[in-house]
From TrEMBL:
UniProt protein name: Homoserine O-succinyltransferase
Annotated catalysed reactions: L-homoserine + succinyl-CoA = O-succinyl-L-homoserine + CoA
Active-site residues per Swiss-Prot or TrEMBL entry: C142, H235, E237
Role description: Transfers a succinyl group from succinyl-CoA to L-homoserine, forming succinyl-L-homoserine.
The keyword Ribosomal protein is annotated on this UniProt entry: no
Organism: Pseudaeromonas paramecii
Annotated site, Important for substrate specificity, chain positions: S192
Record site: Important for acyl-CoA specificity: G111
The enzyme's E.C. designation: 2.3.1.46
Family per similarity comment: Belongs to the MetA family.
Gene: metA
Pathway(s) per entry: Amino-acid biosynthesis; L-methionine biosynthesis via de novo pathway; O-succinyl-L-homoserine from L-homoserine: step 1/1
Length: 305
């Protein structure tokens, strides 16, 4: 089954060219089924790029998914046309009375900014708190995972001395939970962050169960006991060239970044990188939608508590 998105959203054309089944709103109104409702809070600067990446992940499922796009505030964006934001995005005030089967909160380039200095921190806290009773399961990606640890567990920001950037090997620690069903015992996933998610720190200060971990990158996947909060510290949604673009951006800014680890062929930044994490990325999102959202959500969202 398809994901349902607005007719003219750029992602619709891109995904259709990739032979991904996308149902526009015009066609979807004639479907007599109960689709899943997923809210995407997009904190990334290049919102169109992130929309495409995440909707590609959500499309790999037999379930029909209706996606609503949410922005954190009305500040002007340097990387996304205002017409795009005004056409496709809603403010929190417009959705806060709704209930959703799933919520995804993206990462944000705020790794070195203290939470209290983030201009929209209070609004983000309100949304995360709101998700407790208005969303069946929430997926926190990268920086959003660190923000959620602050909101739910009172944990202060944990920051690495140097940025973690590259593709790292992870160990699956749990064999039977459906969220990691089909995962290899060891798998690759990309990271791009200053946040630190050390396993011993997470185990000592939370009740989260860690499903996957890396010697170099720390915790990759952790889940709350009731499955309503899922923490993904990396970027399984990234395209093959996303780390490259970030690296070249930082080089251009004179930041002298370290080359992403285990990413370029022969460790040569002049060569074209390839995705080595795509299959597990799709599997993670499909499992989340099926087992943590569809299998747990009430048919009548009004009864969600």
């Amino acid at each position: 089954m398809p994901i349902r998105i607005p007719d003219k959203l750029p992602a619709a054309g891109v995904l259709s060219e990739e032979n991904i089944f996308v149902m526009t709103e015009t066609r979807a109104v004639h479907q007599d089924i109960r689709p899943l409702r997923v809210l995407l809070l997009n904190l990334m600067p290049k919102k169109i790029e992130t929309e495409i990446q995440l909707m590609r992940m959500l499309s790999n499922s037999p379930l029909q998914v209706n996606v609503d796009l949410l922005r954190i505030d009305n500040r002007e964006s340097k990387n996304t046309p205002i017409t795009h934001l005004e056409t496709f995005y809603q403010d929190f005030a417009q959705v806060k009375q709704n209930k959703y089967d799933g919520l995804i909160i993206t990462g944000a380039p705020l790794g070195l900014v203290q939470f209290d200095d983030v201009v929209y921190w209070d609004t983000l806290v309100e949304i995360i708190e709101w998700s407790r009773h208005h969303v069946t399961s929430t997926l926190f990606l990268c920086w959003a995972a660190q923000a959620a640890l602050k909101v739910f567990y009172g944990l202060e920001k944990q920051t690495r001395d140097a940025k973690l950037s590259g593709v790292y090997e992870h160990r699956r620690l749990v064999a039977l939970d459906p969220l990691v069903r089909g995962f290899d015992d060891r798998f690759l996933a990309p990271h791009s962050r200053y946040a630190s998610f050390e396993g011993n720190f997470i185990r000592a200060n939370t009740d989260l169960q860690i499903f996957a971990e890396s010697d170099e990158a720390g915790v990759y996947l952790a889940v709350s006991p009731d499955c309503r909060q899922v923490y993904v510290t990396g970027h399984p949604e990234y395209d093959a060239d996303t780390l490259h673009n970030e690296y070249q951006r930082d080089v251009g800014l004179g930041l002298a970044p370290a080359m992403p680890v285990n990413y370029y062929p022969n460790n040569d930044a002049s060569q074209t990188p390839h995705s080595s994490w795509r299959s597990h990325g799709h599997l993670l999102f499909a499992n989340w939608l099926n087992y943590y959202v569809y299998q747990l959500t009430p048919f009548d969202l009004g009864t969600l508590s």
